[in-house]
Amino acid sequence: MIWQFGDHELDEGLYQLRRRGRPIPLEPRVFDVLLFLLRHRDRVISKQELLDALWPGQAVSDSVLPRCVAAARRAVRDDPSRQRVVQTVHGRGYRFVARAREATPAAPEPPSGAERAAVAPAHAPGFVGRDAAMSRLRAGLEEARSGRGRLALVVGEPGIGKTRTAEELGAEAERAGFRWVTGRCHE
Hints:
Elements lengths: L1 E4 L2 E4 L4 E4 L2 E3 L3 H12 L7 H8 L9 H12 L10 E4 L3 E4 L4 E3 L9 H5 L13 H15 L16 H14 L12
Helix pairs in contact: 1-3
């Protein structure tokens, strides 16, 4: 489904936010927060409901959600003092307040033979925006296959997809016959 609001489109199928047809880079969790608020725009969504829906069973810092909301506002050029897209309802939560409507997507053209041949390795649904990181991590797997040991550390701000990236690489490694071990560091 594609949602339109202002000069933006949020494409659920492509996991993409666009402004006037041009993609806007967005971290996966920021996309998820924006989409959740958009889907439930008829009411105020509490912080706890967002955390339960988007980080189920995970311990996350108190800054994760405000950081994601702030990044979503920047992406859609929402002035934090005016809040015309995402509104903070103090002490209650957040609400998507921009006028939004469902758009009918244009039928995609079938890919050419060359485009079909250039398809990247399959990922689980919703895993997007990590091509560069996955390329580097896959290169490390190939070096490990040739007998040179490797250690990869995935670091970054809370909620940007570190765990998901590691899980995707782990699944690829296991399919390739590697023994896969992970670790976590808590605050």
